[in-house]
Design brief:
Protein name: Peptidase M14 domain-containing protein
Cofactor: Zn(2+)
Bound molecules: zinc ion
Active site: 378
GO molecular function: metallocarboxypeptidase activity; zinc ion binding
Largest sheet: 8 strands, mixed
Number of strands: 21
Distance between the termini: 29 Å
CATH class of the largest domain: Alpha Beta
Shape: globular
Strand content: 15-25%
Family: Belongs to the peptidase M14 family.
CATH architecture of the largest domain: 3-Layer(aba) Sandwich
Strand order of the largest sheet: 11-12-14-13-15-18-16-17
CATH topology of the largest domain: Aminopeptidase
Number of helices: 13
Number of domains: 2
Mean pLDDT: 77
Oligomer: single chain
Length: 549
């Protein structure tokens, strides 16, 4: 429509004002202003009624007090998705900068006959404050700038060489491919085939529209460079190489899966060239160097992803003709499954089909030596059901980071399992478990008492936080991925909410639109007929500059 003429760079709308038909002149309050021309923004077009990518991220301002709107995202074509399981868009505003989930009753996903039977995601929303900018997204964004400032903070916080930060190469748009090396291994004088130094590679954000992967990576990094005794053992025995953002251009541009030239980064490993895929090219070179080295042994390549169709966390792996190699390949996911409370074993898949040729894990299993175990670690964009219950737990930032910490702990158990690290003796464990001897305990110990055997319990690992069972998405990443605005609006990178402005977490849920008005619409038949009569209806469409696979 003519209203969409002002599209911003790279297919995103840039402050497009939606006016009713026949209106000209200055926009009035209530003529919504859409914007996605900022880092990680994604909105291709906005229309007054009038293929798919899952990722969207845009802002709306110039709203009217109590204005009620239905947003229709028209190119959500994947039939199978998590909307039926309670995944809903998240929202925040300039005055309330924590992300919150929209209530399920206001979100609909259905087949629309007037959109060639494609699927449409509709959500109803009531704006409550005229002077605020509202931002809607599918998942909490994790931008390139955020990663840069996070790494700078780490550098100042850990000055004593806990890790090295290097730039492997630059992307097509000259952004950095960052590499963190965590290596406190004491190098032996002579390295032979028996005492090679073991190297673990972790990759994240090959798919730029999967920000949860960045939170998992952050959890892993923080654990590994922290003071936890497990981290100390891991640091002094293994070399960790973490590439936290493999597709920095795609992340910056708000793409779903692709890089600048529109190619799915996890389907092009076998055809990557230095010219068109500089980051993949550089990583492949790194892999080969370590794999063919005389003093290093590449043990793991783990690629972090987020999944829009499945719940919980799980792994994808490869299948091998060599049954022993296949057995070895199954060990790590098995141990991780016992560590992660959100693990869903039914979602795991081990395959060797042609469709996934060009993914990291297939590339590694075909081109690198037999000892390399390559996996994709997936985590849901939505949440998971607590074991044995019908309660959906939505992931929070910390829920994702916990998976990263669980991943780190699993390396310890794995290397103990394969006898690379010594297994602690039962006596050592027992002595550590004992309570410190106090005066009372010493006094009591002289009295001989019959010790009753304790009832046997199964030891459960610390589960994901259960505290956020409400629809609120309690996020600490208030300003991340938000457009940079003047201070007047309260936006800006690197600043944090003091917590004062944000007194009432439930503001949005208290403001539910009179749902009955929307619920009476029959979305299954002639869905949008009723909606067309609503003058405030907006249709929004994420950019289609990406390919799907
Ligand atoms: Zn992915």
């Amino acid at each position: 429509s003519e209203d969409s003429d002002g599209e911003g760079g790279l297919g995103n709308v840039s402050r497009v004002v939606i006016r009713p038909p026949g209106h000209s002149g200055k926009a009035k309050r209530g003529h919504l202003c859409f914007d996605a021309a900022f880092e990680t923004g994604n909105l291709g077009r906005a229309d007054l009624v009038g293929e798919f990518e899952f990722w969207f991220n845009f802002t709306v301002d110039n709203v009217k007090q109590d204005q009620r709107v239905i947003f229709n995202i028209v190119n959500i074509n994947k039939k199978k998705n998590l909307f039926k399981d309670g995944m809903t868009p998240i929202v925040k505003s300039s005055g309330r900068p924590k992300w919150q989930r929209l209530p399920k009753c206001d979100v609909f996903h259905y087949k629309s006959p007037i959109h060639q039977n494609n699927y449409v995601l509709s959500f109803a929303f009531a704006f409550d404050r005229e002077d605020e900018v509202y931002q809607f997204a599918l998942a909490p964004p994790y931008s390139y700038s955020r990663l840069q400032s996070y790494l700078s903070v780490l550098e100042t916080k850990f000055p004593e060489n806990r890790f090295q930060r290097t730039t492997v190469c630059h992307s097509l748009q000259n952004r950095k491919l960052e590499l963190l090396t965590i290596d406190h291994v004491e190098k032996p004088d002579k390295v032979d085939s028996k005492n090679k130094l073991r190297v673990i590679f972790i990759l994240a954000r090959i798919h730029s529209g999967e920000p949860p992967a960045s939170f998992v990576a952050q959890g892993l990094i923080e654990f590994l460079i922290g003071n936890h005794p497990i981290a100390q053992i891991l640091r002094t025995n293994f070399i960790f190489k973490i590439l936290p953002m493999v597709n920095p251009d795609g992340v910056f541009l708000g793409n779903n899966r692709c890089n600048l030239i529109g190619q799915d980064m996890n389907r092009t490993w076998h055809v990557a060239t230095e010219f068109s895929h500089p980051t993949l090219w550089a990583i492949k070179k790194l892999f080969r160097e370590y794999d063919q080295s005389d003093c290093y042994q590449l043990d793991f390549v783990i690629d972090l992803h987020a999944h829009a169709n499945l719940l919980g966390s799980f792994m994808y792996g490869n299948t091998y003709e060599d049954v022993y190699r296949y057995e070895r390949h199954l060990v790590f996911p098995k141990i991780l499954s016992t560590n992660a409370g959100d693990w869903i074993p039914e979602n795991m898949m081990f395959n060797a089909d042609d469709k996934k040729t060009g993914s990291v894990r297939r590339f590694c299993c075909e081109k690198l030596s037999d000892n390399v175990n390559a996996y994709s670690l997936e985590v849901s964009m939505c949440g998971f059901y607590l074991k044995g219950t019908q309660t959906m737990t939505h992931y929070t930032d910390d829920g994702y980071m916990r998976l990263g910490r669980n991943l780190a702990r699993t390396f310890l158990e794995y290397y103990r399992f394969i006898n690379v690290l010594p297994v602690p003796l039962a006596s050592e464990v027992r002595s550590k478990r004992g309570r410190p001897k106090t005066h009372c305990a010493r006094a009591r110990s002289r009295i001989r008492r019959e010790v009753q055997a304790r009832p046997k319990t199964t030891r459960t690992y610390a589960p994901i936080s259960y505290k956020d069972l409400s629809v609120c998405y309690d996020s600490d990443t208030s300003y991340e991925g938000s457009p940079i605005r003047s201070n007047y609006y309260g936006y800006g990178f690197g600043t944090r909410s003091t917590g004062n402005i944000y007194l009432n977490q439930d503001q949005f849920s208290l403001l539910h639109i009179q749902a009955s008005k929307f619920n009476t619409l029959d979305f299954s038949t002639n869905s949008v007929r009723g909606l067309q009569q609503n003058p405030l209806l907006g249709i929004v469409r994420p950019t289609t500059r990406t390919t799907t696979t």
